[in-house]
Structures are given as structure tokens and as C-alpha cells.
Design goal:
Layout lengths: L4 H12 L1 H9 L3 H25 L8 H13 L1 H13 L4 H12 L15 H26 L23 H6 L1 H29 L4 H13 L15 H11 L25 H24 L9 H19 L9 H8 L5 H10 L12 H19 L18 H25 L4 H12 L5 H4 L12 H16 L1 H8 L1 H4 L2
Helix pairs in contact: 1-3, 1-4, 2-3, 2-7, 3-5, 4-20, 5-6, 6-7, 6-20, 7-9, 7-10, 9-10, 9-11, 12-13, 12-14, 13-14, 13-15, 16-17, 17-18, 17-20, 18-20
Length: 500
């Protein structure tokens, strides 16, 4: 534990490579097994050399260093993670392997290998594991790194206000970040692993093969959308498996569904959480609108409805809306029925909007986050109230205690930074050969960490492997920017952040 945080993450990644190595050995796929086993040994050897070179110098686990370690994990570590993938496949470029690992570790799930049969089963397992470990990293870093710095959505909450929201004195919080990190890992890792194991068992019970069930279980908890069979619509579990996954996607709506370690102001009850209630409103309201659109269109015609098709249509909309709001990106097998039922020709705009909204703060979901959207909604309602009663005084309700006084202002700043990043990434992609529709879809998919948008949001799937190398580098940058968020990158560039 005397190693720097980035070297600890590298050592965990090296040890994790032995799991697909053993899996490939059991399947008698010896070339793939050797690729993962030897790369894992090489990684541990490099970590040992780096540890020996540090000597007796114990690194400081300061907050700037931890945030920089997160950035290195998303940018530099995929270079190492891509080595066994490139070696095992043998017929892919290293840039494609690097892109795939950046997509996995940032829980984006943009599938550059469109044909699942091209990859060996152990590589499918490795991709799901990298996404799962990336989700665990976000669970841990949200409480241990981002919350003390008031980043990642915490700048909107009461603890982000000057002098507010500290459960303990600031000296205690910053005295030993290393001890805080160890405590968070020991608390959340068993919960994360237990939920994944439970979902895996339930998917296997519903008829899913073990490897496919494990990849889907890891992808749902990490909201990575990585699948060993090309998506939930190709799975064997059917609607029963979708129902099970639907229940576990609620963990991406609010951190209060699994922990209250970041709540220091306001109630820690889930039914009073503004994020969870806003997410429920979207999840129920959007499928209902799609469902009722059919009846409104056929009211004058008087066409009789099919009850079974109506239920499939509603369920397809419910699951898909939940999946893209949580930035998982799984498409229901009944989504096509929903499209035909509602008569929508371009449902991709709805999915793009849901992905931009995103899930809860301090979860594995990406996007703008529900708490920021809720803060902007409250500010809009307050401004409308002042149009009628200009001299009115706002009363701070029970549901707004988690938000600081200037929470809407800070949320608007982030939203404008997100929109500016979206515009710049779209312009950059257009400059290297993508048309407007492709550029917009690719930019939103990368910044919201919802990779499956590239396959479902447009009129035709976007084949990522055919993009120019410059476009792939731009998307890698966008995925890292979407995972760490713009405010964290700006904080790393600020001199005041490093001055201590």
C-alpha cells in the first residue's frame, strides 16, 4: 500500500488478466491464454520495478495526485490493457485495441468490433471485466476523490458550498486520503461484487449461458453496455432476463440505492431523493407518451388494438428508456415493436436526449446527471413564480436541502461546458470526414459514455472500425472527458488546485 494509486490500479489490472487466461486455458485456447498470462506477469514485473525505484519514499496521497491518477487510468492504462487483446486477435490494429479498452474502462461500451463472433470468449470476458472494474473505480472515486474536491456533481450539492456539508472537520477529511480510500474500497467493493453475483445467478436461472450472463451482469452494474452476443436483443433469457436487468439498473439512478456515504445535508431516504424521483418520472412518463401516441393516432380510425402487442410495446419502451437514461445502452428485444406501435420514424432523438440527461451523481452512469437537471428545473420554476409574484420569497423545501444556494448557477455552468464540449467534438469529427448526423451521434455517445448509441440512434449503424485514425483519437479524448467531466479537467489545469 506504499505504492502510488496509479501503480496499485496497474497491479490490480495485471492480476485480473489471469482470470481470462485461466478461462482460455479451460477452453483449450492456448494462444489467448498465453497472451493474457504473459501480459499479466509483465505488468506485475513493471509495477515491482517502479516500486523498487521509489525506495523508501512514501508518496503523498493528496487529492490532486489522486485526481491525476484517475486521469492516467483512463488515458495511459488502456495502452497496457490493449496488449493482450491485440496479441490474442492478431488481425486488428493496436489503435483499435486501445480504442476498445478506453471505451471499456470509461464504461462507454462503444463496440469497435461489430461482429461478436470475431472475438474469442476470453476476450469477451476481458472486455466485460475491464468495464466492470471501471465502474467500481467510479463508485470508489466518487466518495474518496470527487466528493472531497466538490467535483463530479457534488459542486451542486450542499457540501459543495463554502463551509457547508462536511460530516467531519476538514482537517480530518484531508489528513489521510489514503486511509479514506482504503475504507471506501473495503465498504463498497463487497456490495458491488455481491450485486453482480446476484444478477449473474438470476440471469443464468432465466436461461442465459454463463459467459453471456456474466458479461450482461457486469455491464448492467457498470452501465457499460458490453455484451458477448451483440446486445440483449440476441440473448437467450428473453423478457425474464430483461426484467431482472431492469431492476438492477435502478442502482444507476441514485447513490442512495446502495450507499449514503456522500450525503451530509438533507434526508438520506430514497423516497425523498430528488434524483431518484426525477428518474422515476422520466422512466414512467416517456414510455407512457410513446404508448399513448398509438391510441391518439388511431382514435379517429377506430382500429382495434392487440393486447399482447400493446404490452410488448410498453415493455420495450420502459426497458429501453431505463437503459439509456442509466447510460447502459441495452436495447430491448421489443423496442422494434415499440417503434411500430408509436409510429415514430426517428426515435434516436429520444435516446440521445435520455443519454445526455444521464443517471445519478456518484454512480457509474454518465451524462449531465439527474441532480443538475433537477437544479435547473427548480430554478426555472422559481423564475416562473417570480413572473407572477416578483416580491415573493422562496421557501427552501425538504427536497432541496441537498442543493446549495447557487446550485442552479453551478449546474448551468456545467451544462454550458457540456454543450461547448459537444460542439467542439462534433466540429472536430466533421473536420476528419464524418457527416453532421454521425458527428453528433458520436459526440453524444462519447461524452455521455453511452456507446451503443452509435448502433441504434441513427438511420443506420455507425461502423467504428471504418473511421479515420484521427476520429478514433478524438473519440478517445471525448470518452475520457465524458467520464471525468469537464470541471475535473479544468481543476487539473488550475494552478490554485496544486498550490498547497
Amino acid at each position: 500500500m506504499r505504492l502510488p494509486l496509479f501503480l496499485l490500479i496497474c497491479s490490480i489490472a495485471s492480476l485480473a488478466m489471469w482470470i481470462p487466461a485461466v478461462h482460455a486455458l479451460v477452453l483449450n485456447d492456448h494462444p489467448t491464454s498465453r497472451a493474457f498470462f504473459y501480459t499479466g506477469i509483465l505488468g506485475l514485473f513493471m509495477v515491482a520495478l517502479a516500486g523498487l525505484s521509489l525506495g523508501n519514499r512514501v508518496p503523498r496521497y493528496g487529492m490532486p495526485g489522486q485526481l491525476l491518477s484517475l486521469l492516467a487510468t483512463f488515458v495511459i492504462l488502456p495502452l497496457f490493457l490493449a496488449v493482450p487483446v491485440h496479441d490474442a486477435l492478431g488481425n486488428t490494429s493496436f489503435l483499435n485495441a486501445y480504442f476498445d479498452m478506453v471505451s471499456a474502462v470509461t464504461t462507454t461500451g462503444a463496440d469497435i468490433y461489430s461482429d461478436p463472433g470475431r472475438l474469442p470468449p476470453s476476450v469477451h470476458l476481458w472486455r466485460a471485466m475491464v468495464g466492470w472494474l471501471g465502474g467500481l473505480l467510479m463508485w470508489v472515486s466518487a466518495s474518496a476523490v470527487l466528493a472531497p474536491l466538490s467535483l463530479g456533481g457534488f459542486e451542486v450539492t450542499g457540501r459543495g458550498a463554502p463551509g457547508g456539508g462536511s460530516a467531519a472537520p476538514a482537517q480530518m477529511q484531508e489528513a489521510d486520503p489514503k486511509r479514506r480510500l482504503i475504507a471506501v474500497v473495503s465498504t463498497l467493493a463487497p456490495v458491488y461484487g455481491g450485486l453482480t453475483l446476484m444478477l449473474w445467478i438470476l440471469l443464468v436461472i432465466t436461461g442465459e449461458p454463463p459467459l453471456t450472463g456474466l458479461s450482461h451482469a457486469m455491464s448492467v452494474l457498470a452501465t457499460s453496455g458490453i455484451s458477448a452476443v451483440g446486445g440483449v436483443e440476441n440473448a437467450s433469457s428473453g423478457i425474464a432476463g430483461e426484467m431482472v436487468m431492469f431492476l438492477f439498473m435502478f442502482f444507476a439512478l441514485s447513490r442512495l440505492t446502495f450507499s449514503n456515504d456522500t450525503v451530509t445535508i438533507g434526508s438520506d431516504r430514497l423516497d425523498r431523493d430528488p434524483e431518484f424521483r426525477t428518474g422515476l418520472l422520466i422512466i414512467i412518463g416517456m414510455p407512457l407518451l410513446l404508448f399513448l401516441r398509438h391510441w391518439l393516432a388511431t382514435f379517429e380510425v377506430g382500429t382495434p388494438g392487440d393486447a399482447e402487442q400493446a404490452l410488448k410495446s410498453f415493455w420495450g419502451g420502459l426497458f429501453t428508456v431505463m437503459s439509456f437514461l442509466s447510460t447502459t445502452g441495452f436495447e430491448s428485444a421489443d423496442w422494434e415493436t415499440t417503434r411500430q406501435w408509436s409510429g415514430l420514424q426517428t426515435p434516436g432523438m429520444i435516446l440521445l436526449g435520455l443519454s445526455v440527461i444521464g443517471g445519478g451523481v456518484a454512480t457509474t452512469a454518465g451524462g449531465v446527471k439527474l441532480l443538475r437537471v433537477y437544479a435547473l428545473y427548480l430554478n426555472g420554476m422559481r423564475e416562473m413564480e417570480r413572473l407572477v409574484h416578483p416580491s415573493s420569497v422562496s421557501g427552501e423545501g425538504r427536497g432541496t436541502r441537498r442543493l446549495q444556494r447557487n446550485g442552479a448557477f453551478v449546474a448551468w455552468i456545467f451544462f454550458m461546458l457540456f454543450a461547448l464540449s459537444l460542439a467542439l467534438i462534433s466540429i472536430a469529427l466533421s473536420a476528419v470526414g464524418s457527416d453532421f448526423e454521425q458527428s453528433l451521434i458520436l459526440a453524444i455517445a462519447a461524452l455521455s459514455t453511452t456507446g451503443p448509441l452509435t448502433e441504434i440512434a441513427g438511420n443506420a449503424p455507425i461502423v467504428l472500425s471504418t473511421l479515420q485514425p484521427a476520429a478514433k483519437y478524438i473519440l478517445c479524448f471525448a470518452m475520457v472527458l465524458g467520464r471525468l467531466e469537464t470541471l475535473a479537467i479544468i481543476a487539473l489545469l488550475s494552478p490554485n488546485f496544486w498550490r498547497s
